[in-house]
Amino acid sequence: MTEKKMILGLALTSGYGNLSGAWRAPHVDPSNYAKVEANIRYAQAAERGGFAFLFTPDFPAVRGDVELSGIQNIMDPLMELAAISQATTHIGFVATGSTTFQEPFNTARQFKVLDVMSHGRAGWNAVTTSDQLVSANYGRAVAGRDERYQRAHESIQIVEALWGSWERDAWVKDQSAGRFLDGSKLQPINLQGQYVASRGPLAIPPSEQGQPVIFTSGGPSPHLLELAGRYASGFIAEVWSIEEARAQRQLVRNAAKQAGRNPDDIKYFAGLMTTVAPTVREGLDRRIAVSGDVIEARLPHLESLLGVHIDPNRYDEPLTTEQLAAAQASPMDPRSEIVLRVAREGWSPRDVFAHGVIDYHPVTVGPAEVHADHMQAWLEADAVDGFWVSPDIYEDGVDAFVNEVVPELRRRGIFPEEYVGATLRENLGVPDQYGADSRLKSAADTE
Ligand SMILES: Cc1cc2nc3c(=O)[nH]c(=O)nc-3n(C[C@H](O)[C@H](O)[C@H](O)COP(=O)(O)O)c2cc1C
To answer: Is 1 exposed, middle or buried (CB count within 10 Å of its CB: 0-12, 13-18, 19+)?
Structure first.
């Protein structure tokens, strides 16, 4: 048994859950997209289970097949999290905010207010948005990577400087002396970059954790690694295997070291999509009932993923011994290894896809042990510090995870019995920071 404990975040990617048909499930209110009350319920359930944070991605645009699948985004993450913060006490909030489209002054202001409102539970997932539809909503073309990352460095440096521009002891609040603030402790930052600038100061006091915790997310490009290494305390990843995650986590940790920081100060989270059910069969049936159309559409892909002919009339029968002997995982797609493993367990093509084998992130389906085995293996292989968990249908999927999987993780000694502290920083186990990271001064000055 390992001493290491995992950290969990809960992804709120829509009002309904990660299955594209979650909004249509009979026990789900189809109006939840516009009901913050539903997200409050899910946040409270996650808090009951000791989740360190909610993670809200953000692609502010109408994308994908909205007629069938709904909108894969919550209405406005920061606004909703502000409401959720007033109905919870310990869970943190890692909200995505774009360095490409937001002005750093707005970002600094809104995230720090969330941090103050929530008594030190806010985080900022700083993303270099490149989505064309989002870009169009801001009336701009998508800039190249160099420009987006230069803007990101400048934005984060300005945001951090603004956060620190109200000195910790500036707020005197001395009623008898008639002195509200020590004005000398609110100083302009006067930062002028190539793309963004701000004078400051920011008129918002420190929170219980000083300032929000910075995260980043994405693939391990040299650009993103440099950004993460310098500023991030959390990294939201997209990885399919233990080996991939372990190698990527090492790159992220090395990047922090190169920037003059302690690698343990950046926590690495892999995605995990869950269907908790008494048996694997019942879990697959739940997924087929809600997302059967998506699974049906994927069935023809099995041939190319495994390199064998599969008769469309036999999608509900396990592959034959001959087919399995001839099957090979496609080197073009890291997920095909999982496809082959599941097919070899004797599942039919429809059930193979019901396992979520080509979803955006690894999927676990079945009773608590299935999920706990996956998470324990990744943790003990030093592939992760934790997971961002994305349940199939929030309405009962968050409770099922909390009631079934969390006790199993605790029984195995790999998840804390209770919250370590009251702030996000404490629950992540990352150090105090106020303003810019002083260890980065020389690097920042060369920008
Ligand atoms: C797990 C994960 C979550 C992401 N969430 C968001 C998001 O919410 N909003 C966004 O604009 N980009 C998001 N991204 C995209 C990246 O952060 C990044 O902006 C994008 O990959 C473009 O950067 P690049 O030029 O380095 O490829 C996410 C990426 C990953 C892997």
So the answer is: exposed
Which among 253, 248, 237, 277 is positioned nearest to 401, based on CA atoms? 277
DSSP reduced 3-state for 155: helix
- At the topology level, CATH places domain 7-274+367-445 in TIM Barrel (3.20.20)
- Ordered by start, the domain boundaries in the chain are 7-274+367-445, 280-361
The confidence score (pLDDT) of residue 3 equals: 82
> Which stretches within 299-433 are classed as H helix?
302-306, 321-326, 336-344, 349-354, 368-380, 394-400, 406-411, 424-428
* Tokens 């790999």 found at: 414
Contact 228, 252 (CB under 8 A): yes
* 88 Cα to the center of ligand 1, angstroms: 28
- Cβ–Cβ under 8 Å, residues 46 and 65: no
Tell me the two tokens of residue 155.
């934005």
CA nearest 41: which of 402, 380, 378, 381?
402
Residue 131 pLDDT: 96
From 191, 73, 186, 48, select the one nearest 131 (Cα to Cα). 73
Distance CA 53, CA 201 (A): 29
Closest protein CA for atom 15 of ligand 1: 218
Ligand 1 atom closest to the Cα of residue 219 is 31
Could you tell which of 217, 223, 272, 361 is best to mutate to test the pocket of ligand 1, judged by most ligand atoms within 8 Å of the CB?
217
Tell me, what's the pLDDT at 443? Answer: 42
Judged by DSSP in three states, 12 sits in coil
d(CA 119, CA 425): 11
Nearest Cα residue to 100 out of 141, 72, 61: 141
Q: Could you tell me if the CB of 185 is within 6 A of ligand 1?
A: no
pLDDT, averaged per 10 consecutive residues of the chain (447 residues), comes to 87 94 96 97 98 98 92 96 98 98 98 98 98 96 97 98 98 98 97 96 98 97 98 97 96 97 98 98 98 94 94 96 94 89 97 95 97 98 98 98 98 98 98 86 44
Structure tokens at 308: 């064998």
pLDDT at 441: 43
